[in-house]
């Protein structure tokens, strides 16, 4: 029997941290998401999460995107006009666009 891929994130994530509005069958009464299980330590603290990627590939994409955004939040910003000017100067974007 082939097993579904599972992702293990070592975090103290909660369902709220993962996503508030993802349409993956969140049971608002119990705050459970199908295909998502939390691992807890001896004190009952959540230490990791198991995600069934077959059921929740979109959820993983959301987590990954949020992690990338958080990681890059201190990087310098460029305006769209600055990016366009740089690309035009490099000959990668026609002038006037």
What descriptors fit this protein?
97 residues; three-stranded antiparallel β-sheet; two-stranded antiparallel ribbon; 31% helix; elongated
Distance between the termini: 55 Å
Query: Care to count the β-strands?
Result: 5
For the biggest sheet, the summary is: 3 strands, antiparallel
> Kindly state the mean pLDDT as a whole number?
75
Our Rg estimate from Cα atoms comes to 20 Å
Strand content: 15-25%
Please summarize what this structure is.
With 97 residues, the chain is an alpha+beta fold.
Task: Give a structural overview.
- The structure is a single chain.
- With 97 residues, the protein is of the alpha+beta class.
- The protein has one domain (6-89).
- Helix content is 31%, strand content 22%.
- The chain contains 3 helices and 5 strands; from the N terminus they run E-H-E-E-E-E-H-H.
- The chain has a 3-stranded antiparallel sheet, with no helix packed on it. Strands 2-3 form a two-stranded antiparallel sheet.
- The radius of gyration is 20 Å and the shape is elongated.
Q: Any chance you could write out the topology, listing elements then pairs?
A:
Elements: E1 6-10, H1 15-18, E2 26-27, E3 32-33, E4 36-40, E5 46-52, H2 57-72, H3 80-89
Antiparallel strand pairs: 1-5, 2-3, 4-5
